[in-house]
Amino acid sequence: MPDYSEYVLSVYLLALLLLGGPAFVWLRRLQQLRRQLQAENKDLP
Amino acid sequence: MIKWFAKVHWLLATAAVLSLLVGMWLVLAAPQDYQQGNAVRILYVHVPAAKMALLSYVVLTIASALYLWRRKEMWDILAEAAVSVGAAFTALTLASGSIWGKPMWGAWWAWDARLTSMLVLLILFMGLMALRNALDDPHKSARATAVLALIGAADLPIIHFSVVWWRTLHQPPSFDGPAKQTITGELLPPLFVMSLAFFLLGMWLLVLKSREIAARRQWEAVETERLERNHA
């Protein structure tokens, strides 16, 4: 039976990219917005 | 609700990471399938991602209905977050299914009822994003996306029952309660733990995106206020 490891690895890397990517971007944006709001003396909602 | 989200944010993130680590350990320790070999490990991502894609749309439907009924902004924020999270899980479901299909079915794609209805779900999520960005008036865009989301909810039962109603290349449910189990017990622990991990991850993403949207809207309000002050 073929190994299929390359298919498995590509799925797990894709999961990391498709779920980890947005999480990273949203976290960065939230931190940036927090800094901007703090500069205006406002807290995060 | 957004204040409550801030409290559970890191708790959910920690729980998601821990359960993902346990899940990955179980995935690596699980035996190969006698027919699929190693490719069975793709299903530990594909099945939980599909469940989360559908759950995201359920959250979107409930939040949209509550927004249209109560007109409270928090429901619109939750609906907008559910669209982004749902689109990511749906894209992962389709891509992982396609990568599994190539070695198992000999084809990347088939116009089968389950696959097609799932593709419709991805198009719906993308359409909802486009519609929200297309309208300038935030109240109008919130109402329009809520109505479209409720209409699109008709796709959910079609996705769920597609493998029962039609003869499809996609297999029927392998686990529908202990009485209707066609999957060997050895493969169930990693599937359950990965399902829990994806659920916690999905909830964390929903909380994170909701907070980001709420912060963005607050910042936009600050900017508008400043512009009006400068014009006055």
Can you walk through the features of this model?
The complex is a heterodimer of chains A (45) and B (232). Chain A is mostly helical and 45 residues long. In chain A, 78% of the residues lie in helices and 0% in strands. The mean pLDDT of chain A is 92. With 232 residues, chain B is mainly α. Classes of the chains: A mainly alpha (45), B mainly alpha (232). The interface between A and B is medium-sized, with 28 and 38 residues.
So how many helices of chain B? 7
- Output the number of helix runs of chain A: 1
- Total E-strand runs of chain B: 0
Q: Helices and strands of chain A: which structural class? A: mainly alpha
Tell me the β content of chain A.
under 5%
Could you tell me the strand content of chain B as a percent range?
under 5%
Low-pLDDT windows of residues of chain B: none
N- to C-terminal separation of chain B?
35 Å
Biggest pleated sheet of chain B: none
Q: What is the H-and-E element order of chain A?
A: H
Helical coverage of chain B, percent range: over 70%
Q: Would you kindly provide a brief summary of this structure?
A:
Chain A is mainly alpha-helical.
Provide the descriptors you would attach to this structure in a database record:
heterodimer; A: mainly alpha; B: 232 residues; mainly alpha; 7 helices; 78% helix; globular
List the helices and strands and how they pair.
The complex is a heterodimer of chains A (45) and B (232).
Chain A: H1 5-39
Chain B: H1 2-29, H2 43-70, H3 73-105, H4 113-134, H5 138-152, H6 155-165, H7 188-231
Helix pairs in contact in B: 1-7, 2-3, 2-5, 2-7, 3-4, 3-7, 4-5, 4-6
